[in-house]
Amino acid sequence: MNLLKVENLSKEFVAERTIFGRPLKTVRAVDDVSFEIARGETLALVGESGCGKSTLGRLIMRLIEPSDGTAELSGEDISTLSGKALLSLRKRVQLVFQDPFSSLNPRMTVGQAIAEPLMLHDIVPAAERPARVRELLSAVGLSPQHMHRYPHEFSGGQRQRIVIARALASQPEFVVCDEPVSALDVSIRSQVLNLLADLQKKFGFTYLFISHDLSVVRHIADRVAVMYLGRIVEIGDTEDVFVRPRHPYSRALIASIPQPDPAGRDNMRPLEGDMPSPLNPPSGCHFHTRCAFAQELCKQDRPALVSSSGRQPAACHFQDELPLPDDLAAAAQVDPRLERLFAAFRAGSSKAIEP
After folding, report:
1. In angstroms, what is the C-alpha Rg of the chain?
2. Is residue 282 part of a domain?
3. Which pLDDT score is estimated for 347?
4. What pLDDT digit, counting tens, does each position of 6-18 carry?
5. Would you call 109 helix, strand, or coil by DSSP?
6. Domain count of the chain?
7. % the chain with pLDDT above 90
8. How many Cα neighbours within 13 Å face the side chain of 62?
9. Strand order in the sheet with 174-178
10. Cβ contacts of residue 238 below 8 Å, gap of 6+?
11. For helices 186-203 and 156-168, what crossing angle results, to 10°?
């Protein structure tokens, strides 16, 4: 059963206005995006910086208003909510930010920060909030005594656990994780990722996991959506996208994954060129200016995101004709060093508190 359904969602920002205030130049940050997320599933959203990933996450949460399209949560159109209905949505949908330090108020103790959503949504009586805060801290692997400390007294990994505990406080149905581990080193990253996976199993959360780290995505995601210049160009099961990608952009991203063996880099074909300006995107397929397989049709017609030959949907006119590079499957493998850390924490130390 689908928890979230997004249909033709778009967002335009005004980049320049006339002296009379009329829009002169606009940026289409999200361009006619549609997808669904099943209850209890993790969908990863990947792509280069500036492709619209974070904007899409904020549109779903109604932190910014869409220019067009709809988003439904449990069958309810959340695009038109206001007042108390919108406040109720804030309880059901939570966000884990990229930078755990800037997302915590330095003047509030950890206990006050976690108790704030309990108070705003009137989830538990005031007398029971300290006990609930201690439970949440324990759930994310922190000591209940930490509730009296301030954010600056914790390491980056511990602060991210605090942010996760605060997100859990309102007992949400859906959690948007916006680059939640990009600011952490590899060992702490694996702790936080395994914590997210453990919490999903325990509470049945549904995640939209926004990331540019494909090794992390392959570890945690059930499905992957690849985004380029505001559009989703491929979406499917994680293994299908990594091992048998259908879009040239997906293949370029996977081929760019760093390999632990330097000798293997000779076979890699990283993506060349820069992303076009969103102020003046290319016609037709946005990717045709960087695609080695582009033809005249790609410059004229926008390809639809469709499934062909029973495979995952991709927005490419020639997805059935593209050869699979011999070295792509090897490039798509998870870094063994990262995988060993994941395995170690899964074995029993995923909730350990780093010094």
Report:
1. 21
2. yes
3. 59
4. 999 999 999 888 8
5. coil
6. 1
7. 54
8. 20
9. 93-96, 174-178, 206-210, 42-46, 223-228, 231-237
10. 44, 217, 218, 221, 222, 223, 224
11. 20
The residue whose two tokens read 């924490």 is: 345
Q: Is 148 helix (H, G, I), strand (E, B) or coil?
A: helix
Residue 285: inside a domain, yes or no?
yes
Per the listing, tokens 């705003």 go with 120
Assigned domain for 270 exists: yes
Number of Cβ within a 10 Å radius of residue 301 = 12
**What are the residues whose beta carbons fall under 8 Å from the beta carbon of 1, sequence distance 6 or more?**
38, 39
Exposed/middle/buried for residue 265 (C-beta within 10 Å: 0-12, 13-18, 19+): exposed
When pLDDT is cut at 50, 70 and 90, the band that residue 249 belongs to is very high
3-state secondary structure of 142: coil
Label residue 187 by pLDDT band (50, 70, 90): confident
Per-residue pLDDT tens for 209-231?
999 888 889 889 999 999 999 99
**Which residue pairs from 276-280 have beta carbons closer than 8 angstroms and sit at least 24 positions apart in sequence?**
276/229, 278/27, 278/28, 278/29, 278/50, 278/229, 278/230, 279/15, 279/25, 279/27
**Domain membership flag for residue 327:** yes
